Amino acid sequence: MSSDVGNSRGNFIQDIINADVAAGLNGGRVHTRFPPEPNGWLHIGHAVAICLNHGLAVANCGKFNLRFDDTNPLKEEQEFVNAIIADVKWLGADWEDRLFFASDYFALKYNFAVDLIKNGLAYVDDLSAEEIRDRRGTLTEPGQDSPFRNRTIAENLDLFARMKQGEFADGTRVLRAKIDMGSPNINMRDPVLYRIRHAHHHRTGNEWCIYPMYDYSHPIGDALEGITHSICTLEYADHRPLYDWVVHNIGPCSPQPGRPKQIEFGRVGVSHTVMSKRKLRRLVDEGFVDGWDDPRMPTIAGMRRRGYTPSSLRTFADKCGVGRKNMTAELALLEHCIREELNAEATRVMAVLRPLKLTLQNYPADQVEWLTIENNPENPFAGTRQVPFSRELCIEQEDFMEVPTKKFHRLSPGGEVRLKGAYIIKCVEIIKDAATGEVSELICTYDPETKSGGAASSRKVKGTSHWVSAAHAEPIEVRLYDTLFGCENPEAVILGAEFTQNINPHSLVTLSESVVEPYVNQVAPGERMQFLRQGYFILDPLASGGGRRVFNRIVGLKDSFIKGQ
RNA sequence: GGGGGAUUGGUCUAACGGUAGGACGACUGACUCUGGAUCAGUUUGUAGAGGUUCGAAUCCUUUAUCCCCUGCCA
Model-level pTM? Predict the structure, then answer.
């Protein structure tokens, strides 16, 4: 994975790693992990976290694990496990043979909990959830000890074993850490370690009816796997003392030397979209998009379908950097990353999205020339291709203006334009639809002396238009995607308003009359290319098939003409 | 007088007591058989106030603002 992340400077986590390695901590090892809960789809923010963790491991000759945090059987499903595995793999973060589940360690975690009890560090509490809440205190007031806090070790051991045996109903008892109900940090006020849940787990089935809580489970998973740097988001900073408490009190438990440490970083968001699972779910459930992998969604699956490459996402993650504050990157940065990559690699193809018929009066009716056009001016090694040219052509409707504005460089009555890779033409007549009055066809003449690459081809005209030979035009469907939301921060709404009110009604424009040169016949599903002057497109493998070809616009080209209007 | 975190141009990020730099965006111009790309240039910043120091984005004090925390969620 390409990455600046691992450079010895420029990122506070790498600084910490450098210091740890220099101090000989963990035997000099670096081992990170990505710990998703399989209860939803991954989004661009997760992608950044994956790249961070994996990039740090690679940059420091370390290892990277994928571990599912599946400690809550009520919310987690195998379907999400599969989707997340596919996403992480696609991104290029390689966990090799280290795919783990928090549930892999349920038995070990149980044994550690028994040890905690034996050491007087945990107790079974009979209080209800509500009673526990009432005694937890508030942000400004300390909590009160539970009346069950000082049970004997023997009684705790017995009760905890019976919790495991399934003797008690959900919610009737929990195992709590015995720390400090007076702590100013609420997480340290005797946090719940285990709760009773008679529920089916996607991996352990009905083997367990007690399940560990995140704060207890996560540090143990890290310790067992020999994780050295447990990177998580900012909101867990308050949990770090508890993380350290668990790691300290279970003692070293990995065959490898060292103990994990938690490091928090600011999550990354992107402008013009929403990121919370709840909001993304609403977009799907309420039909604003076609599903979790809709190309307008900021999910990894959506972006993959949209046409983003894994490397463009990795570049984006690198350019975002890492800090200790939550940030929102501009969508423009993301778009820059994919444009930069595709500009260097994508084959240029001529597609006419909204066709306007154009006839060359003085061009032989039965003649077809196969013109040679470069595949990518950025890359001479990309070679050339043959494109058919004939009397009847299609050009872009927007490349003709009956009454041209001052800065318009393309066809207008009596005006000239260069047809890309072909001839300079002149518009001599406009044919309008009798009913609508709209321009339906242009009659032009071509100048045979101006053939591209020819001896007299050096004459200059103001503009160049792309085109497709009508007789050779291949029909395609084009989906022009724009931002799902019209504003930078869709969540910023006045009180009582919904973020969905900021949805951009034009986020998807479908064109079914578009045409493209015959090159399309050799394009494989999933292949990306540039439609000259329009943007970068991908042949959508999911939407295409059965003779139907659907192209998604990944991102448009920058256009200083539109901006100047 | 609860705890934790943060504050560098429009956005992100670097500078670790020694010239505030980079990226993206924006704007100019050049060039162009893609109004793309490329090239050249311009623009905007250390939240405020004190202090320490020869010298402060950096250390200290203080103010302000923003984010997170009272799940048997993660």
Answer: 0.95
